[in-house]
Automatic annotation (TrEMBL):
<feature type="domain" description="Glycoside hydrolase family 5">
    <location>
        <begin position="81"/>
        <end position="367"/>
    </location>
</feature>
<dbReference type="Pfam" id="PF00150">
    <property type="entry name" value="Cellulase"/>
</dbReference>
<keyword id="KW-0326">Glycosidase</keyword>
<dbReference type="GO" id="GO:0005737">
    <property type="term" value="C:cytoplasm"/>
</dbReference>
<dbReference type="InterPro" id="IPR050386">
    <property type="entry name" value="Glycosyl_hydrolase_5"/>
</dbReference>
<dbReference type="GO" id="GO:0009251">
    <property type="term" value="P:glucan catabolic process"/>
</dbReference>
<dbReference type="InterPro" id="IPR001547">
    <property type="entry name" value="Glyco_hydro_5"/>
</dbReference>
<comment type="similarity">
    <text>Belongs to the glycosyl hydrolase 5 (cellulase A) family.</text>
</comment>
<keyword id="KW-0378">Hydrolase</keyword>
<protein>
    <recommendedName>
        <fullName>Glycoside hydrolase family 5 domain-containing protein</fullName>
    </recommendedName>
</protein>
<dbReference type="InterPro" id="IPR017853">
    <property type="entry name" value="GH"/>
</dbReference>
<dbReference type="GO" id="GO:0046557">
    <property type="term" value="F:glucan endo-1,6-beta-glucosidase activity"/>
</dbReference>
<dbReference type="GO" id="GO:0009986">
    <property type="term" value="C:cell surface"/>
</dbReference>
<dbReference type="GO" id="GO:0005576">
    <property type="term" value="C:extracellular region"/>
</dbReference>
């Protein structure tokens, strides 16, 4: 029996079996709820489908010059054979097992629009990849298999449209090597992208372990992008439920798009994706790993916290790494000391991500050739740059019922006492129901069979629960909404303090 077969019974996506603890307000939850609302701690499966030569060079062996992109491979010789061999071997069951054992609970899988041409041939119409249907017609089936395999291991999956028709950025990982952004140049490019995203949302929203769909990876920012986001989200919501998360890139303007997410999508599950790297600019190269760590802890954490507040907590870091530019290391230091710089850099990032985001995905899982503890999660783990366990605190099991009662009583008494001496509050009676629901919901996440989880998109989850509470009780919270939310958050915090180690 293979590894995949051993996990099927526990994590089969079509028939999940979850033993939820009792709730004071029992409300049915679909099998996708924990996967989509939990704190995402993940890794990117880079260069599996959307290819990058610096990560996996062998698949480029017969590509056409300049040999840097998917288009160059498709234009060369033996493309179908080389690609299918790569898709079928780059990631296997042992890889998913390693990811699970490290404590990661999700993977981000970059794909491109042309990978959908098997079930959706018209997605290629009028695009550069129109002649290559025969090459990519089998890709979508493999992507679905990858999603299924991740689910068997209890891993969530974020599908990321890494390459759109015409290319949304000038980098080769968008599918083309021309260095030009052609996404906005032709109607056929926009039509292809709309078709691809609507198809993906319709298909993926039905799969419990799919945690969301990212609309475009790192699009070049311009005056058209924000309006396009609004328009395409409206289109997608015609074919997907509002609680299916849609991720949008900040286009390297996090301040602007964090406000955009928070202001324009109050009742929709829209998540902002920021990518954090500190190895590309001249300014980055002038700082050591320790200096980067200090800057992150002392300055960037406040910036990120403000941006998270702008986005109502719906912000993640979809790509980050341990990579530092060679100039960031003092001259002539040994490799072990370089790893010390990287280790502290990673530690600072993880501290900030855990406290100020709803999730993060390391870039990338592995590289094909050579040792690279900056970019390869597998190498970084071997060098102990990544911590041994990335899954957060572990669940110790549900406590006796009197523990919850004691925690609730203490919190409620403190709440009422404080507000009694500070002018009163709208309705102190709603604090306890909020606390109780927050505690119970937190245990649902912590006891999930895929492994220890915790609520990550707290504001989004609270918004959902508030409506359910009002419908269940027939009581409108009105001005007391903050009081119920305050109790809810304290219930989550208390459960994490008591039930994890």
């Amino acid at each position: 029996m293979g590894l995949l077969d051993k996990f099927k019974d526990q994590f089969h996506t079509s028939s999940p079996s979850y033993d939820f603890p009792p709730s004071s307000h029992p409300i049915p939850l679909g099998p996708q709820a924990v996967f989509r609302y939990r704190q995402q701690r993940g890794v990117n499966l880079g260069s599996w489908f959307s290819l990058e030569r610096w990560i996996s060079s062998n698949v480029f062996k017969d590509s056409k010059s300049p040999g840097q992109s998917d288009f160059d491979i498709a234009s060369g010789s033996n493309a179908k054979k080389n690609l299918e061999q790569h898709w079928d071997t780059w990631i296997n069951e042992d890889d998913f097992k390693w990811i699970k054992e490290k404590g990661f609970n999700s993977v981000r899988i970059p794909i491109s629009y042309f990978h959908l041409c098997g079930p959706l041939p018209e997605v290629l119409k009028g695009t550069e990849f129109e002649p290559f249907h025969h090459i990519y017609e089998g890709t979508w089936g493999r992507i679905k298999k990858a999603i299924e395999m991740a689910g068997y291991f209890g891993l969530g999956v974020l599908i990321d449209l890494h390459g759109a028709a015409g290319a949304q950025n000038p980098d080769a990982h968008a599918g083309l090597s021309k260095g030009k952004v052609g996404f906005w140049d032709k109607h056929s490019n926009l039509a292809s992208t709309s078709l691809a995203l609507r198809y993906l949302a319709s298909e993926l929203s039905k799969i419990p372990q799919v945690v969301g769909l990212e609309l475009l990876n790192e699009p070049q920012n311009n005056s058209k992008l924000q309006a396009w986001y609004k328009s395409i989200i409206e289109e997608i919501r015609q074919v997907s439920p509002p609680d299916f998360p849609l991720y949008i890139s900040d286009a390297w303007d996090t301040e602007h798009y964090s406000k955009f997410v928070g202001d324009k999508f109050e009742n929709d599950f829209i998540v902002l994706d920021h990518h954090l790297y500190r190895c590309f600019t001249d300014q980055d190269k002038q700082k050591t790993g320790y200096q980067h760590s200090s800057e992150l802890r002392n300055n960037f954490k406040n910036t990120l916290n403000n941006q998270s507040n702008n986005a109502k907590g719906n912000i993640i870091v979809g790509e980050w790494s341990a990579s530092l530019d060679p100039h960031s290391f003092p001259p002539n230091i040994p490799d072990t000391e370089k790893d010390a710089h990287r280790r502290e850099f990673v530690k600072a990032q993880l501290e900030i991500f855990e406290n100020h985001t709803a999730g993060y995905w390391f870039w990338t899982y592995k590289k094909e050739q050579g040792w690279d503890a900056g970019w390869s999660a597998k190498d970084a783990a071997r060098a102990e740059i990544l911590p041994h366990w990335l899954g957060g605190k572990k669940f110790r099991g549900p406590p006796p019922e009197n523990v919850k009662h004691n925690e609730l009583s203490h919190a409620e008494n403190s709440h009422k006492s404080y507000w009694a001496s500070h002018g009163g509050s709208p309705d102190p009676t709603v604090f306890a129901p909020g606390f109780s629901q927050g505690w119970d919901d937190s245990l649902i996440f912590l006891s999930h069979p895929s492994g220890t989880s915790q609520i990550g998109f707290i504001s989004q989850w609270i918004s959902r629960r508030k409506s359910e509470y009002e419908n269940h009780t027939g009581k409108k919270l009105g001005k007391a909404i903050w009081e119920w939310e305050h109790g809810f958050r304290q219930g989550i915090e208390a459960s994490l303090r008591v039930c994890t180690a």
